[in-house]
Amino acid sequence: MGDAKNSGRARGTAARQAGRVLILACAAVLALGLGGWAVLRSWSPGVPNPVLGSDGRPVPGSISEKIFVDIGGVRQGMFIRSADPANPVLLFLHGGPGMPQYFLEELTPTGLESRFTVCWWEQRGAGLSYSPGMDPATLTVDRLVADALEVTDYLRSRFGKDKIYLLGHSWGSFLGIQAAARAPEKFLAYVGVGQVADQTESEKQAYAYMLDRYMEEGNEKKLRKLWKYPVLEAGPDVLLAYAGSLLRDESMHELGIGTTHTMKSVITGVFLPVWRSRAYTLREKANIWKAKAFLARSTDLRARLLTARPEEEIRALDIPAYFLSGRHDLTASYDLSKRYLGELAAPVKGFYTFEDSAHSPMFEEPKKFLRILTEDVLAGTARLADRD
User: Fold this and answer.
1) Which of 8, 284, 354, 386 would you label with 369, given CA atoms 20 to 30 Å apart?
2) Distance CA 290, CA 25 (A)
3) Helix axes 246-254 and 2-42, enclosed angle (nearest 10)
4) How do 187-193 and 349-354 pair as beta strands?
5) Cβ-count burial of 254 within 10 angstroms (0-12 exposed, 13-18 middle, 19+ buried)?
6) DSSP 8-class letter at 227
7) 138 Cβ partners below 8 Å, 6+ apart?
């Protein structure tokens, strides 16, 4: 009974955080007034930008679309972009749980569509794939992995590919490495960005780092707040409450170990870019935040992530494996990701350090990111990988 109560409190903390963001969204819209509302609507046609060539014009034969497909009996949304639909197909699994990242692709383009037909799928219960009244019982890790494999089959069939590439970022890497292990015959290679290895230990490392930094700075106010969550000594219930708190996100971004090394606020770095995106309608933008609150309140996905240890559960892959990590990443510990790949058995494997990145090297150092995927992943080699 105690564990259930603690889990409920932790989910409540995470839900309140997501709820605050949703309330902020509503307040911002109201504050804009009628004129601002018209501007916001003009920013929200709900259509992704075309794929442009070096001349700034749409590339002939390219595709840039937002579509909805029945996956596992649920209408799920995705963006598909490609300069040439004959290119190899890449499925991108976003982080979270429940945080689509296509708006960051608009803000800082990766260029993936120049070499791949890339699918930015929004997972069941998240963003485009959220709908009111969803049954929380259907939102499990096993169901999401099964969905990923079904999306894979859709892409293989549509683009006439026997196998595709799979990329998982953060929470998406937790799902992605399971999908790669479960059905290697569907994939050419697996790419883990900010690869989850042991998230409990990762959170403890980040917490200890933040305590040290704030002690060095003499920031007693922030220290007192962190001490309310004795993460290093207490049990999993405290860790779960802390992991879903606004304090954690604020502190990690303030110290440059969060989403990106330079992102100091989730408001300016995530919240506002979502509302500026042209690929989503106003309703779809609101649903991104509604979905975050729903997932935090109604599911145990975050708890599942925190208690899982992929480095112990998945010890080998039958396909090439590439882990890409930012040197400053403590959202999913750089050191733990590197250790995991060192112990993982795979026919080809490579670890790549992004010196100027935290948790999102594809958006922080996109040129290096694209070069690795082009010259190593597509070639099935690891020539550019770290040598230490």
Assistant:
1) 284
2) 10
3) 60
4) unpaired
5) middle
6) H
7) 74, 124
Question: What is the model's pTM?
Answer: 0.91
Q: How far apart are CA 103 and CA 112, in angstroms?
A: 14
Give the β-pairing of 187-193 and 164-169.
parallel
How far is Cα 282 from Cα 267, in angstroms, rounded to an integer?
Answer: 18
pLDDT interval class at 3 (50, 70, 90): very low
Q: Is the pLDDT of residue 333 over 80?
A: yes
Rounded CA-CA distance 219/217 in Å is: 5
Do residues 139 and 96 lie in contact, with contact meaning Cβ atoms separated by under 8 Å?
no
Cβ-contact 74, 150 below 8 angstroms: no
Residue spans of the domains in the chain: they are: 1-47+62-388
Mean pLDDT rounded to a whole number for the chain: 90
Q: How far apart are the first and last CA of the chain?
A: 48
For 1-47+62-388, CATH gives 3.40.50.1820
